[in-house]
């Protein structure tokens, strides 16, 4: 077994006896059920909002459910296209848990949906949390980079990967860190949910550029074999290519979401300004005398 295969946590093996099957279920069934429950809760609230006068975007619902499905597939060993020991499978799992699935979840605007569903007093509580000091710290660019990219570097450039491969609790904590830090990154960069003191569009594009650069450098170091990861060369290089190209695709999609949301906000602001000008300036009306 590879010492860096984090996806091996609850796997039973190729032979598959009763003990192995029980171990696999006990290791992977709880997170899959948790994801299914969260997705079901979101869907129930979204369907209720569809019947409300304000409505709810089907694109947001589709985005959140797609993220949930990808997250469930990532933690389900049987869904991997690679053998249990293959380092490329671990890298694919990292991309899904840490980048692609969190982006879908964040673009689904779950906080906004929850705020519409809960009583006003609970909405005020959420608002106070978002305006609190810890929330401002979490949304700061330095925190985002430290959690998102720092965790990635720590996993592949230190003995952490070997520790996580041999310890189930550490293994799950690593995945939880990837999920939360990836969600935080997507939320601040392009998420439609409210965020405290969200950086400017230019700053967010710079953050995305730094993320692309770090992924590129780390994947090239991995491909060259200088990180000390002891796996077969073809697996190491395949995983490095997945990190390089998969990371680029995920970050380009996030950049597209950022630019799209920004342009929509600009058009909405311009429309509101024109409406206000027409309402306050009678001479601007086409039917007014000249």
UniProtKB/TrEMBL annotation:
<protein>
    <submittedName>
        <fullName>Cytochrome C oxidase assembly protein</fullName>
    </submittedName>
</protein>
<keyword id="KW-0812">Transmembrane</keyword>
<keyword id="KW-1133">Transmembrane helix</keyword>
<feature type="transmembrane region" description="Helical">
    <location>
        <begin position="28"/>
        <end position="47"/>
    </location>
</feature>
<feature type="transmembrane region" description="Helical">
    <location>
        <begin position="136"/>
        <end position="157"/>
    </location>
</feature>
<feature type="region of interest" description="Disordered">
    <location>
        <begin position="271"/>
        <end position="290"/>
    </location>
</feature>
<feature type="region of interest" description="Disordered">
    <location>
        <begin position="1"/>
        <end position="20"/>
    </location>
</feature>
<dbReference type="Pfam" id="PF09678">
    <property type="entry name" value="Caa3_CtaG"/>
</dbReference>
<keyword id="KW-1003">Cell membrane</keyword>
<feature type="transmembrane region" description="Helical">
    <location>
        <begin position="59"/>
        <end position="79"/>
    </location>
</feature>
<dbReference type="InterPro" id="IPR019108">
    <property type="entry name" value="Caa3_assmbl_CtaG-rel"/>
</dbReference>
<dbReference type="GO" id="GO:0005886">
    <property type="term" value="C:plasma membrane"/>
</dbReference>
<keyword id="KW-0472">Membrane</keyword>
<feature type="transmembrane region" description="Helical">
    <location>
        <begin position="169"/>
        <end position="189"/>
    </location>
</feature>
<feature type="transmembrane region" description="Helical">
    <location>
        <begin position="242"/>
        <end position="262"/>
    </location>
</feature>
<feature type="transmembrane region" description="Helical">
    <location>
        <begin position="201"/>
        <end position="222"/>
    </location>
</feature>
<feature type="transmembrane region" description="Helical">
    <location>
        <begin position="91"/>
        <end position="115"/>
    </location>
</feature>
């Amino acid at each position: 077994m590879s010492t860096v295969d984090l996806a091996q946590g609850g796997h039973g093996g190729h032979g598959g006896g009763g003990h192995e099957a029980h171990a696999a279920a006990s290791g992977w069934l709880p997170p899959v059920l948790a994801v299914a429950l969260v997705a079901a809760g979101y869907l129930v609230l979204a369907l209720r909002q569809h019947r409300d006068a304000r409505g709810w975007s089907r694109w947001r619902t589709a985005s959140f459910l797609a993220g949930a499905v990808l997250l469930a597939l990532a933690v389900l060993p049987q869904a991997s296209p690679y053998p249990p020991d293959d380092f490329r499978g671990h890298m694919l799992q990292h991309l899904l848990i840490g980048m692609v699935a969190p982006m879908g979840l964040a673009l689904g605007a779950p906080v906004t949906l929850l705020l519409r569903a809960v009583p006003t007093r609970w909405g005020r509580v959420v608002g106070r949390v978002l305006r609190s000091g810890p929330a401002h710290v979490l949304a700061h660019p330095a925190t985002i980079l430290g959690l998102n990219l720092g965790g990635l570097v720590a996993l592949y450039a230190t003995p952490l990967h070997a520790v996580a491969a041999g310890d189930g609790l550490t293994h799950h904590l690593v995945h939880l860190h990837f999920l939360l830090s990836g969600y935080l990154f997507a939320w601040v960069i392009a998420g439609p949910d409210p965020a405290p003191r969200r950086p400017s569009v230019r700053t967010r594009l710079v953050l995305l550029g730094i993320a692309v650069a770090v992924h590129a450098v780390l994947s090239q170091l991995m491909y060259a074999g200088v990180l000390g990861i002891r796996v077969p060369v073809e697996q190491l290089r395949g995983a490095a290519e997945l990190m390089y190209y998969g990371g680029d695709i995920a970050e380009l999609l996030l950049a597209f979401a950022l630019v799209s949301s920004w342009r929509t906000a600009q058009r909405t602001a311009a429309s509101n300004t024109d409406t206000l000008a027409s309402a306050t300036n009678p001479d601007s009306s086409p039917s007014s005398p000249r």
